[in-house]
Structures are given as structure tokens and as C-alpha cells.
Write a structure and sequence with these properties.
globular; 6 helices; mainly alpha; 177 residues
């Protein structure tokens, strides 16, 4: 699934569940970084489409790069679009690394299901045990539906948190009167 938004679906579910302990922007950046190597192969016509970058070892190295670069790129992006006024929102290092690792590892897993040239456990083995465990159509549906479920969960969790905060304020105001 190179260069598609399908990878973001599962990330939206993780964001909904982990809230501020996960950066969807760093996760998204990790998705882009993962597909740079296949892009180079497509442009040049040289090499294997899903090479070392689509192994767990390669994904780990790309997660480190994505975490370091994605933290700052995401903070700048959030500032530009207005979510980070006066640099008040900082993505912690552990959130950046967690988000990048989830991003690259989920990328390898999802692509391993549909691409025969992926060797997720290279250099230990060149076999791909994930290939075809579900159909391509089902995989796409899982990714799309997870985006929908993630959005609903995110909104519901935030609504409950705001409701609880306003309920606590009401209780405090009644007791102080």
C-alpha cells in the first residue's frame, strides 16, 4: 500500500486509545519515511521494491530516524496550522519514539500481508508468514473501517473527558457556595 492513506486507519485507532501518549503526525511521518525506498525503486527501476526498509530491522532504524526528525517536523507543522500557539505543545521524546515504532512496525505488518517481496524477519529468515493471511479486500476494509472507528472513539473519549471535567467543576462550585 505505498503512498496511500490506508496505513493511517490503524494509527487513528491508536491515537483514540492513547490520546496524548501518541502522535498521529509522527506516525504519519513514519509511514512516508517507510515508503521512500520503494519510491526510489519505482523512479529508478533499480532494486527490489520492498527491500531492507520493509523488514523489522529496517523498520527499527527508520523508526529512530522518524522519531528524531518527526518530533520537530510535527511541532513545526502543529505551529503552522495553529494547534501549537507560541510553541506550547511539545511532543515528548518517548511519545515520538513510540509513535514512530508503531508506525514503522504496523507498516511492515500491513504491507507483509499483501506484498510477496517483503521479508519481515530478514536477516533471520526470508519467509513471509503474513502473506495472504487475509484477502486484499479485507485488508483494505480493516484499514478504512479502523479509521472510522478511531474517529468515533476519539470524539467519544474527548466528549466524556470534557463532560467529566464540567461535572467536577459543577460539584466544586456547589460545595464552595
Amino acid at each position: 500500500m505505498p503512498f496511500t492513506p490506508f496505513h493511517m486507519g490503524p494509527g487513528i485507532v491508536v491515537k483514540a486509545l492513547l490520546q496524548g501518549s501518541f502522535s498521529l503526525m509522527v506516525f504519519g511521518w513514519a509511514q512516508i519515511v517507510m515508503d521512500i525506498q520503494p519510491l526510489i525503486v519505482m523512479i529508478s527501476g533499480e532494486g527490489r521494491l520492498h527491500g531492507f526498509s520493509h523488514s523489522l530491522v529496517g523498520a527499527t532504524l527508520l523508526a529512530i530516524f522518524s522519531a528524531f526528525s518527526g518530533k520537530y517536523l510535527s511541532e513545526i507543522g502543529l505551529f503552522i496550522i495553529g494547534f501549537n500557539k507560541q510553541w506550547q505543545l511539545n511532543i515528548s521524546w518517548w511519545v515520538s519514539f513510540l509513535s514512530a515504532l508503531i508506525g514503522t512496525y504496523s507498516h511492515v505488518l500491513l504491507d507483509s500481508i499483501m506484498h510477496s517481496d517483503i521479508e519481515p524477519f530478514f536477516p533471520v529468515t526470508t519467509s513471509n508468514v503474513f502473506l495472504g493471511i487475509i484477502s486484499l479486500q479485507t485488508l483494505h476494509k480493516v484499514c478504512l473501517y479502523s479509521a472510522l472507528v478511531g474517529c468515533i472513539l476519539y470524539c467519544a473519549i474527548n466528549w466524556v473527558q470534557k463532560f467529566n471535567k464540567s461535572s467536577k467543576k459543577d460539584v466544586l462550585n456547589r460545595t464552595s457556595s
